[in-house]
Please model this.
Amino acid sequence: MSILFAIALFSLLIFLHELGHFVAAKLSGVRVNEFSMFMGPAIWKKQKGETLYSIRCIPVGGYCAMEGEDGGSDDPRSFDRAAWWKRLIILAAGSLMNFLTGLVLLVLCFSTERQFILPVVTQIEEGCAIAGEKGVQEGDRILEVDGERIYVYSDFQMILNLNGGENHDLVLLRDGQRVELKDFAMVKGEFPNEDGSTSLRYGFTFSQVPASFTETVKYVWNSALDIVRMVRLSLKMLLTGQAGIRDVGGPVMIVQQMTQVAEASATTYYAIMNLVSFGAFIAINLAVMNLLPIPALDGGRIVCLLITTLVEASTHEKINPKYEGYLHGVGMILLLALMALIMFKDIFVLIKG
Model:
């Protein structure tokens, strides 16, 4: 089930990504020569107006072929002749569709929830070392930990674990006012449980609210922002050396993780919901990653678009689009090489494990 879900998910995300480019191009008056789902030889195609619609036999990828997207077209409706802001919208539309897909999947995940846990402190236990006049109080909403926003309650422990150590910087919202606790000692203590045992914890719980329409919308949006932040933190760890290529996974690892998630679920229903949640994470991940300023990605094309627009506006001279084409060509080769490396690494780890 997880393998089929992964194939369906990737196909859907790529289709919607290209659909975003397609719709934005059509609305901007840019000529679209072909809109294809999948790659390889066509198994179905139909010409409708100026656009050829096709389904191809290799269930990977897809494309929206616009006139003049690589420059050199004399067609007045070509991509390279459109206003710069229209090209910007067209390039960003693919990632926007993936982000919206992630939001829809998150709505499906949380639509059956009866309540949500908020990062608002409640029920402080007796002997809690971090509570008090100069510490945490009941009703405090935890806004930030170590400079990172707390979007959902699980962020609290995640950020603490990520940064390590005992002392942290907290920002609280108390009675409408921001309260900052600098270099605050987050000390755990032994607290009794209902069964008579004890456990090591901070000594307070977070509040719960009914899952109203408003709370569901807020929780979905905050969860999406949380995923965006996780992408940023992951990239930061790669750039700073906290993580390496061994920690990066491709489609093989994703399918493996989906299988683990499904198998660990108590029922088929929870397996499906967990896979949908995983799908939301992948969709938003893809939206953010595709906007990175890397040649061959939409983000790289957007950066080149903004630079060339500024240069041409300043010098009143047209930059030859072939130079940008060379840049994206090299970027695509390097990107494919990296993807191949990651895939072989995942397969080796899978076989070895």
Summary: Residues 321-352 form the longest helix (32 residues). The helical segments are 2-27, 84-110, 154-163, 213-240, 251-264, 268-289, 298-315, 321-352.
